[in-house]
Amino acid sequence: METHPRQFKKEPLMDGFLPSLIAVNAFFQGSGGWLTAPMKFFSFLGSEDFFLITLPLVYWCLDAALGLRIGVMLLASNGLNNLFKMALHGPRPYWVSTDVKGLASETGFGIPSGHSQTAAGVWGIAADGIKRTWAWVAALIVILLIGLSRIYLGVHFLHDVIVGWLLGGLTLWAFIKFWEPVAARVKKLTLANQILLAFAVSIGMILLAALIVFLSWDFVLPAEWVANATRAGGDAPNPFSMEGMVTSMGTLFGLFAGVAWLAPRGGFHASGPAWKRALRYAVGLVGVAVFYVGLKLVFPDGEDWIALVFRYVRYTLVGAWVSAGAPWVFSKLKL
């Protein structure tokens, strides 16, 4: 029996609302070009690059326990977001309409908004850790502006952002409710079993993503999406890439494994005078650069399984360095 690739077909509901959704993006972009710079800034506050800089700062220099919670929330949110994106196949606004400018470039599917979901989870966890009313107010403002920035930049529809906020809020609720009891049970496991559990969770998420990709084997990106995306000056869509999931899960495994290894050795506390904290951050970032940038230069790159295995190893080392390697060096340097 002959099979044919399955082209994307808009659901009647989406088809009917698409002009209105595009109009929302066009309205935001019509507010004036002066908004582009601040909107890109707020978008940056929800990006992986921003958290790559700030997560080590919190963990090494401010509050290690809060830094760990933020890190786990970030990586878990990224993993869940990848799963939903791959399963839902939602386009970006600038992929489907030339009336929307692509002021940022994204290669993955649109719904749910990863920036909005991550912002709700991570900034919410930060506010919960600070436990001050002003922190929650500030977090809500940042979460709102990050979501709106994604609409303005033309990379998300309004419903992408709303779904991202809802998923982020649900993840935040579950995290606050279950973190302590789950952590207490995990701490009772042996070191080997803790590391094995972290590895199993990370590999399980990767395999689930691979299953979704496999089940989407007959999905073909509409030529219109690809043409509009490249015409806007961005990268061509590559929505079934496994790199994002492997990156998040490798880092998550390394982060957990490092914490488990360090705990029986006294753990890590981010106390000390300001000059020591500043030195910790400087020394620690050197290590991040070695694993994040240095190994990228020597490890194979690409989407084949060998390259993905090396990517998993590289990001495992990044996570382990942040949670255990750098703190061990700090102790030896008396920082």
Structural class: mainly alpha
Q: DSSP strand (E) fraction?
A: under 5%
Instruction: Supply the number of structural domains.
Output: 1
Task: Quickly count the helices.
Answer: 13
Rounded mean pLDDT is 90
For the largest beta-sheet, the strand count, sense and barrel status come to: 2 strands, parallel
Shape: globular
Physical arrangement of strands within the biggest beta sheet = 1-2
DSSP, total strands:
2
Quick description:
The chain has helices spanning 12-29, 36-44, 48-62, 64-88, 93-96, 114-130, 133-152, 158-187, 191-215, 223-231, 243-262, 274-298, 305-332; strands at residues 6-7, 219-220. With 335 residues, the protein is mainly alpha-helical.
Structural notes for this entry:
The longest helix has 30 residues, at 158-187. It contains 13 helices and two strands; from the N terminus they run βαααααααααβαααα. The protein has 335 residues and is mainly alpha-helical. The N and C termini lie far apart (68 Å). The chain has one domain. α11 packs parallel to α13 (305-332). The chain has a two-stranded parallel sheet.
For this entry, give a set of tags.
13 helices, two-stranded parallel sheet, mainly alpha, globular, disordered N terminus, 1% strand, 335 residues
Architecture blueprint of SSEs:
Elements: E1 6-7, H1 12-29, H2 36-44, H3 48-62, H4 64-88, H5 93-96, H6 114-130, H7 133-152, H8 158-187, H9 191-215, E2 219-220, H10 223-231, H11 243-262, H12 274-298, H13 305-332
Helix pairs in contact: 2-7, 3-4, 3-12, 4-6, 4-9, 4-11, 6-7, 6-8, 7-8, 9-11, 11-13, 12-13
